[in-house]
Model the fold of this input.
Amino acid sequence: MFGTVARMRAKPGMESKLEELSRQFESRHVDGWLSTTIYRAKENPNEFWLSVVFRDEASYTKNAGDPVQDRWFREMMQMLESEPEWHDGDVVHAAHTH
Done:
């Protein structure tokens, strides 16, 4: 598995729109996408941490180069104070309960 973790700061009042945009991504059924988790910082309600996991690096890279993803990202950028801080890498451990 491969993915990214991003630190983002939403513009004031954009928090719910950011959540809605995330649901739009999930409804696209992107090939290789496995999960998205978004955290809101307790100390700063405008700060979010995003974790996205794909089946493999090739799926992640294919999505990153997709023009539909680029439009989605540009829409997200309108809701953020600045470019997210990205950290890409291999997922070395994941545990979930169902």
